[in-house]
Every structure is written in structure tokens, then in C-alpha cells.
Write a structure and sequence with these properties.
Layout lengths: L11 H7 L5 E6 L5 H15 L4 E6 L2 H19 L6 E4 L4 E4 L4 E6 L13 E4 L7 H10 L7 E5 L7 H10 L6 E6 L1 H6 L5 H10 L2 H7 L14 H6 L9 E7 L7 E7 L4 E7 L3 H12 L4 E4 L4 H9 L5 E4 L3 H16 L9 H8 L1 E5 L2 E5 L7 H15 L10
Parallel strand pairs: 1-7, 1-8, 2-5, 2-6, 6-7, 9-12, 12-13
Antiparallel strand pairs: 3-4, 4-5, 9-10, 10-11, 14-15
The structure holds adenosine-5'-triphosphate and magnesium ion (MG).
The site of magnesium ion has 3 residues, from α2.
């Protein structure tokens, strides 16, 4: 059956985000950037191309699900096919059925228990930052048997929610088949769906941190990040081309990466390498990279023999043993360096890892932690390099007269 109706086209960035081929796509977007409309079209297209499929649209409350999801899709279909040749609606159950046997069911996230049970072929979670985490668990489970795709869309709403954490994982490229996209107000203006004077008015009228979250898609610094989100952003620079003055190396343990990070004499990252290799190859890669440059390597546990081995004939190599206390001190040193603008690094996984850090209060005081699902090896390599750079013996210059 050929599609007999015509629906509005998406603007380029909207299309690239929503139609990313990855199975899970997380889109953090400005308000009024077209995420809801775009994903309604996406789920409709999916349902149309796959006969007898079950698709879900999930939104925070019944009211939002009904008005922002169900009624909008029904209105679009009514415009495109007023005789209802290829679709019909069930207003009491919030279901839209297509002539090919597929259905799009609109569900409320506020009662996650009702979200289990069915095998779902494609799903959208709208306003994800306002949906409870259990609703994501439920939707995820319904997609398992079918291996169906999912679009997770919403505005930013602080950093303490599951959608923010998942977005950071996707952005860091740490999750297979999971992509991250961002649509800002500027993208929506360029795409012709939002007026720039409206954005300017919002900027004047809203508190800065609210405007930044809703329009610029920048998480507000809710005081939960020990490095400071503004300080992290201010430290972003392209990779330096200068020679390394110090290296920091975090060794892979079980599931994470080995990261070799070099800082130049001004504190700017000039070398960044992240890899997974066996110990022999790791040792060789480190040895050939660091040469005689002062280096600090994580020597905890399995790292100990590697560091000992590398230290043979290399007085420039220092080990660092991680304990709860030494780790905290190391990270506090990094936080101070970032806040004093003494260290700069390229955008990418390093920024994402830094932004994910949080304070945690423990019996013995405050601790910096990365969420359990996030890697922190880039941050550790950076902290080790900063420590090693600070540890270098002062060089004395004598002027001979
Ligand atoms: N590709 C497009 N072509 C034309 N109009 C569009 C397009 N995408 C979105 N719009 C229009 O832009 C407006 C905002 O779209 P939508 O509600 O999908 O944005 P949103 O990002 O979900 O906003 P919110 O923050 O309110 O959830 C709507 O009037 C919609 O019809
Ligand atoms: Mg919306």
C-alpha cells in the first residue's frame, strides 16, 4: 500500500536528529523546536511502513498525552485525509489505527505499571525529563522482543533525571546504537519554525538559567557539579599543537578505557588517546608515547606491575595509588585548576565526563562521584596530568654575566 497522504516536511536539523539511524536517539531540544511534531511524523511513518505494528507515544500525564500527542496527530491526519480513508481514531482509548493494521497508542507515563506487557515496535517518550524513570524502564522492556527503535525527546530540566544521564551516555558515544542530538533555538529559527524576536523576548523576560535551559539547551549549574559547569565550558579549547610537558594516564580496569592525556606547558591538552588493548600492547603504546616527558600513571591494583615495568629506566614515570582519600584530593586539585583557568581541553568525551560529576555527601565528608553508568577515565587522566605538571621540579634559569 502506498502512502496516500502528504505531511509537512521537517527542517534539516530536525530531520537529521529524528531520523538518525541509531536505534535509540536522545534529543535535547529548545522549546518550540519541533520535537513533538517531528516525532509524531516519525512514529506515523514507522507505523505506515510496517503493517500490523504497535507503536507507543508516552508523555508525562494523561492530559499532555491527549492534547499534545493524540489530538495533534489526529488533527494532522484529519487535514491530510479528511475522509479517513487510511486512519481512524479511538478517542476514549487514545489510539489511532491505520488501514495497514498498525496502531499508535498514546500512554501516560505517570502510571508506569500500565506500560508493561505489550511488545512494542517503536516508541517515543515526549517530555522525557518530566517522565518518571520507571516509565523509561517499562518502555525499554516493551522494545526488547521486537528490538524496536525509540526516540527520547524533551527540554532540559536540571541534571538530576534519567533522561539527562542517558543523554550524557549517548553524547559520550559510550552506548552502542544510541545517538545524541541537540536542537537549539537558533537551529529552530534557522529551520523557520521559531521567530527570532520571540527568542529575544524570552531572553529579556526569563531568568538567565531558565532561558539557557529552555532555548540554548545548556544545563543550568544547579550547584551539583563540583567543577562548575560554567568553568568547564570556559575551559574548552581546540587541541594544542605544542609539545607535551606532562602526561596523565588512567589504565583500563574491566570495562573501561585506557586514556593517555598530555598537557602542554600552558596547561592546554595537546594529546588525547583513548583505547582498549591488552596489557602488553598498552604498555608499548604508553612507552612509545611518553618518551622522557614527566608522566603520572594510575598504579592501583592491576596497574602496579605495569607502572613498575614502565619505571625501569624511566625516572620520569610516577605511580599514583587511588584510595578514597587520594582520589578525592586528586579531583579537588583538578577542580581548583579548572576554576582558576589553569587547564584547557577540547570539547568531546572529556567535557561530557566532567559535566556528569556530582557531589555526594558521605559519612566522612563530601565526595565527587560520576554516575555509576558513566566512565570517568578521561577525567582521571586529566587530573593525573594536572597533578604531574604541578609536581615538576622548578627549573632554574641562570643568567651568566
Ligand atoms: N518542520 C516543520 N514545519 C513547519 N512547522 C513546524 C515544523 N516543526 C515544527 N513546526 C511547528 O512549530 C511549532 C512547535 O512545534 P512542536 O510543538 O513540535 O515543538 P516542541 O519542540 O515539541 O515544543 P515544546 O517545547 O512546546 O514541547 C508547532 O506549531 C509546529 O507545528
Ligand atoms: Mg513538545
Amino acid at each position: 500500500m502506498q502512502a496516500a497522504i502528504e505531511l509537512p516536511p521537517l527542517y534539516r536539523k530536525q530531520h537529521d536528529a529524528i531520523c538518525d539511524p541509531a536505534r535509540f536517539v536522545i534529543i535535547e531540544a529548545s522549546t518550540k523546536s519541533g520535537k513533538t511534531v517531528g516525532c509524531l511524523l516519525w512514529v506515523l511513518e514507522f507505523a505506515w511502513n510496517r503493517p500490523n505494528s504497535v507503536c507507543w507515544w508516552v508523555a508525562p500525564t494523561f492530559e499532555v498525552t491527549k492534547t499534545v500527542g493524540f489530538e495533534r496527530l489526529a488533527a494532522m491526519l484529519r487535514d491530510a485525509d479528511p475522509e479517513k480513508r487510511i486512519w481512524e481514531e479511538n478517542t476514549s482509548r487514545l489510539v489511532i489505527k491505520l488501514a495497514n493494521g498498525s496502531k499508535v497508542a498514546f500512554k501516560s507515563a505517570d502510571n508506569p505499571d500500565t506500560l508493561y506487557g505489550e511488545d512494542v515496535h517503536a516508541a517515543v517518550i515526549d517530555e522525557a525529563t518530566r517522565c518518571p524513570e520507571e516509565s523509561w524502564h517499562a518502555v525499554r522492556s516493551t522494545l526488547s522482543a521486537t528490538r524496536g527503535p525509540c526516540r527520547i525527546i524533551g527540554n532540559l530540566k536540571g541534571r538530576k533525571n534519567w533522561a539527562y544521564r542517558l543523554a550524557r551516555l549517548a553524547e559520550a558515544g559510550a552506548e552502542p546504537d544510541c545517538a545524541y542530538h541537540k536542537l537549539t533555538a537558533a537551529d529552530a529559527v534557522a529551520g523557520g519554525v521559531l521567530a527570532s524576536d520571540e527568542v529575544e523576548a524570552a531572553k529579556r523576560q526569563l531568568p538567565d538559567h531558565v532561558f539557557r535551559e529552555l532555548y540554548l539547551v545548556e544545563a543550568s549549574d544547579d550547584g551539583g557539579n563540583p567543577f562548575g559547569l560554567d568553568a568547564i565550558r570556559a575551559a574548552i579549547r581546540p587541541l594544542s599543537t605544542a609539545e607535551p610537558a606532562a602526561f596523565g594516564i588512567d589504565l583500563a580496569k574491566t570495562t573501561d578505557w585506557t586514556v593517555i592525556l598530555g598537557l602542554d606547558a600552558t596547561g592546554t591538552v595537546c594529546y588525547l588517546d583513548r583505547f582498549r588493548l591488552d596489557w602488553q600492547a598498552t604498555r608499548e603504546r604508553i612507552a612509545s608515547t611518553i618518551g622522557k616527558v614527566p608522566t603520572m600513571i594510575d598504579s592501583t591494583g592491576v596497574g602496579d606491575p605495569i607502572v613498575e615495568d614502565l619505571q625501569r629506566g624511566r625516572p620520569n614515570v610516577e605511580g599514583f595509588k587511588f584510595t578514597a582519600t587520594s582520589r578525592q584530593q586528586l579531583l579537588e586539585g583538578l577542580a581548583a585548576a579548572i576554576q582558576r583557568s589553569e587547564v584547557r581541553f577540547p570539547d568531546g568525551f572529556l567535557r561530557v565526563e566532567l559535566e556528569a560529576f556530582e557531589w555526594e555527601s558521605t559519612r566522612t565528608g563530601v565526595r565527587y562521584t560520576a554516575p555509576a553508568s558513566m566512565h570517568d577515565d578521561g577525567v582521571m587522566a586529566l587530573a593525573l596530568a594536572v597533578r604531574r605538571a604541578a609536581n615538576r621540579p622548578a627549573t632554574f634559569r641562570f643568567r651568566v654575566i
